[in-house]
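ASSEMBLY PREDICTION REQUEST
Request ID: AP-0331
Submitted by: J.K., bench scientist
Number of chains: three
Total residues: 913
Priority: normal
Notes: Please return the full assembly, not individual chains.
Input sequences:
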Amino acid sequence: MENFGYIVIVPFILLISFILIGLAGGRFKPSLSGIAGTFSVFVTTVISYITAFSYFSGAGLVNGVYQKIIPYNTEWLRFTDKLVINMGILLDPISVMMLVVISTVSLMVHIYSLGYMKGDSGYSRYFSFLSLFTFSMIGLVISTNIFETYIFWELVGVSSYLLIGHYYQKPSAVAASKKAFVVTRFADLGFLIGILILSNITGTFDYSILTDPNGPAIAQGSTIAFMGLSVMTWALILVFMGCAGKSAMFPLHIWLPDAMEGPTPVSALIHAATMVVAGVYLVARLFPLYALSAPAALHFIGYVGAFTSLFAAIIACTQTDIKRVLAFSTISQIGLMMLALGVSDYGGEKGLGYMSSMFHLFNHAMFKALLFLCAGSVIHAVHSNEMNGMGGLRKFMPVTHITFLVACLAIAGIPPFSGFFSKDEILVAAFEKDFVLFIVSMIIAGLTAFYMFRLYFSIFWNKNNEYKDSPHESPSSMAVPLMFLAFASLITGFIPFSKLVTADGAGFETHIHWGIAVPAVVIALAGILTAMALYKKESGLPQRITASLGSLYRLIYKKFYIDEIYLFITKKIIFNGISAPVAWFDRKVVDNTMNGIAAVTNFISVKIKSFQSGQLQQYAYVMVSGMIIIILFALYLWNK
Amino acid sequence: MEQIIFYILVSGILIFSVLTVTSRRILRAAVFLLFMLLCSAGLFFMLDFYFLAAVQLTVYAGGIIVLIIFSIMLTSQVNEKLEAAGVKKSSFSLIAAAAGAVVCIYSILNYSFPAVSNGETDSSMKNIGMQLLSYKDNGYVLPFEVISILLLASMVGAIIIAKRDSAK
Amino acid sequence: MIEGIQLEFFLVLGTLVFFIGIYGFLTRKNLITMLMSAELILNAVNINFVAFNKYLYPENLEGQFFALFIIAIAATEVAVAVSIIISLYRKIKSIDVEKVNELKY
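STATUS: Completed
Returned structure:
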């Protein structure tokens, strides 16, 4: 078996890059820090590809099963003899796959940002935070234990916060970064409690013990019951709460649309391709636990995913800000991945859902990053996010146009683009397990095709807008990543994922189920045609439809008023009911007590400070008279 | 004869003390202090403590008084009369001092001291020197050395303090 | 030992000189005269020590030694005090104790 020790370089080069750019970035030319960051990510990418190649070409394979390889593991914190937190690196199919995804998308985003962020005042800062993010994301996927994951999980959250707030002079960006941070932190509270319960039951943090299907952790899990469900189920649902926060599952999805305030490449990297799928990744990482000892939790995840997916797809049809459409589309696709995990079982061909979820994650990362980068390119050219202000751009930006079309076809699930293959597997898995979820995913497929092509047609076809300064194609540093990712979206569907990434490590054969694939493609085509009819030419039809839908349209357009409900709960109930009385108590009682003490002290000090006159003879006089008084007192006691 | 001399010395001590603290001319006050110290040296002679009396004369009357007179010369107009203390201040001080004196004298007179032993004092200079440098019983070598270090320290300190600020 | 003179006589003398010194210390405004008063106080203590030695423990020399040490300490005290007074005089052109009130609140 090959030793993968060189993988240690990956996190360290990124960390060093972050520190160097962060500390010294301001001293040099900004372009230098961009190049340094891109170079470190390039090295990471090369190493990741080498690792992936040698792992999947046989180094990780023993008796037809991909093994967990731990090239490096060191003790970090020792609480008791049994409870130890390690820091290490774990390689197994999903972590190697994630390495490839993260490094590829990150490299593309870095190259893209070289052009996109040119002239920005925070250029160095931006690249150092990108390095920090890539470092923590890679740390997250290669963690050997759940606590290490938690540490990097929080680091990812922090770097997301920093990058969303990149334009910190803009109040909306500040609010969005705060919102993202608070919501995900709130969810991470559940995650932390889940970790504590989990480690309390099983006595370990280690993934290799926790997820061993024949290991003690799974056997112990279901023994203790609490409120009708086993404690293991509760713990895993709490862990899923953290995943739901990061992956923007309903009802914790509210931060993701606002997170689009960050620079567009950041949205592509963090809020489309990598960080938001961390929740999916973590569920997949703990999948044996979910599947074998808490199927109820898995079921729950499947339904949450399905609901979120449908919900976000419906909202996406009404939004006009192109980045928000993409954000809701991301939520929808992640919901689909969760759904796929929810309908999966452990082992062999029953693990189809797991495999399809990972497959979709992989493909989605590519085409969604592409979509965002295209959107960034469009925004770069038009200087606006609003769909209504665009149209007819296909003549001005041919590269962006073609790559965007590729991405749309991929996400809509048209063969032979990558999305078709993974979506087909998801549909098959759902069909075999749960018919309701199958129907839901079919609807989502149609909606996805519709809203993506609505976006496509409104941007690149539709009316020919008059632009003040005519839009132009982006520089090559931005165009090259687009073409690379479009190429990836074309070919990644043909990767034999079922042989490589499966729940138990053993590969199996899959083939396209035409009985399901054909209806799915038909539905997708129907969605595309509808969008074409409505948006290809400028017409009043969409307005008339929205007008006839009336209040329902408004309800959807306002995202079902979820944000308003949150605001109502926090502002009206929590602020007025709890915070205001506490604040009153703090101001009136606590502060006044403190002020009173200070005032009394001040009063006394003013009264007695004239004793300190600085007059030596006064002091001497007091001393002598005091001595005499003491002597008199002593004499009195002596003679008594 | 001895008693007469003793009373003269005692009255000299008291009178010159009072003059020291009341004289309005600062140089005179210093000279009265010198006389007072001379009188007490005489007292030590009468008690057969020749070495102590000699030290009193040389160090106190010789050294310290000269030092004080020097500082007077350096800092004051010799001919100027000193400001008299205010009535309030002097009367309060007088009350405090008188009260202290009364209390102390009262307790001295009321205390019965142990009987006088009639041993002979060997206060020859040789004996004093031997004992001062002895480290056996009744030896004073440690305080002697401590005092020598104190003298050195005060010498250095005095130089440092009185030196002109080189920074200016 | 002097014929017909009691120990108490010496002690009362010492006390009187001591409190005359205290009086001077409290009333004098000039720092140098205050220093002289301090010398009076020290000398009063000397007288007491010597008298105790002579009258109560004539076979020992402790009282003399203490008196010697006090003289030495008085010398150092005067040396330091005079240097302080001189540097003070350089700074504020006065040696009036009431003007030296930097230690005020």
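REVIEWER COMMENTS: The mean pLDDT of chain C is 87.
SIGN-OFF: pending second reviewer
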